[in-house]
Each structure stands twice: as C-alpha cells, then as structure tokens.
Amino acid sequence: MKSFKSFKSVKKAKGYTLIELTVVFVLVILIASTLTSMLSQQVQFYTWWNTQRFIAEEAPLANNIVVRLFARADSFRTITTDGVDTMQLGFVNDAGATTYGVISYNAGALQYSYNGTPAWNIASGLSSASFNTVADTLQFTLTGPYGGQVTYAATPAL
User: Fold this and answer.
1) For the whole prediction, is pTM greater than 0.85?
2) Could you give the C-alpha distances from 149 to 43, 47, 54, 57, 138, in angstroms and in order?
3) Which helix (H) or strand (E) holds 35?
4) Relative to the CA of 89, which of 32, 49, 103, 108 has its CA 20 to 30 Å away?
5) Per DSSP, what are the bridge partners of residue 48?
C-alpha cells in the first residue's frame, strides 16, 4: 500500500521570491526619486524666495537711505583703497566748509561713515557692491546673498 503525505507534514520554504523582492526594490526606488525631486524643488524655491526678499525688502530700504544722502550731497567721487571701492560724498555747510561722508562695502555690509566715524549699515548680508562714476553720474550695484542685483544711479544735489 502506498502512503500519502499529509498536508501537515509538508514544510513551507522560508523567505521571499525574486519577484516580491523586485517589486519592493522598484517601489523603494520610485519613492526615493520622488523625494529627491521634491527636495530639489524646495531648495530652488528657497533660493528664489531669498532673492526676491532681498529685492523687495532690503533693496528699497537701502535705496531710501542712499537717495537721502545723495539729495544732500554737493559732490561725490569714487575712491579705491587697498582694492576696496568707496564713494566719498561732500557736504558744504552754511559756513562754506566741506565735510565728507563715505559709503563703503565691508564684510558683507554697505556702510556709511561721517568724518571717519562709522554711523550705520545701509544694507547687510550682501555678497558684493561695486561703485562706478560715468559722466557725473554715480552707478553702483548691490548684489544680494542669492544673486539678486539692484543697480542705483544718482547725481549730486538731486
């Protein structure tokens, strides 16, 4: 007589099949690629946001101060000292004496000093600032931390 094995005596193999492992691996790759693209979009948005913030918030404040300084200045000239560009403003008082103020870029900040005493920061967090005089017109460009640029042009006694 032949004996048949009962179902209870058959042992199941432990582990996963190759198809199951492949499906899981493909799903993990899809999720990782989606997360990577989402992270890349967030970084681009953050960079854009900071560029716009510089142009929309910090640049107008710097513009306000610079316009007020140049409206009162009687003369100006650009000076380069030790490779650093500065703008010297001349102010003539009622007695006819001239005093000078200096706008300079130093360590990420556009600063204004009057008679050699630092007075205040016009703008901070800049990556660069450049001054140029073209036909009695001052042009200077402020570059924000994420590449946003604002160019100003002014003449003395606006």
Assistant:
1) no
2) 20, 14, 9, 13, 16
3) helix 18-53
4) 108
5) none
Digits of tens for pLDDT over the chain (158 positions)? 555 555 555 566 688 899 999 999 999 999 999 999 999 999 999 888 877 887 888 888 888 888 888 888 888 888 877 777 788 888 888 888 888 888 888 888 888 888 777 768 888 888 888 888 777 778 888 888 878 888 888 776 54
Distance CA 43, CA 54 (A): 17
What is the C-alpha separation between 117 and 139, in angstroms, rounded? Answer: 24
CA distance 75 to 81: 19
Widest pairwise Cα distance in the chain = 132
How many other CB atoms sit within 10 Å of the CB of residue 129?
Answer: 24
Three-state DSSP state, 21: helix
- What CA–CA distance (Å, rounded) separates 11 from 5? 11
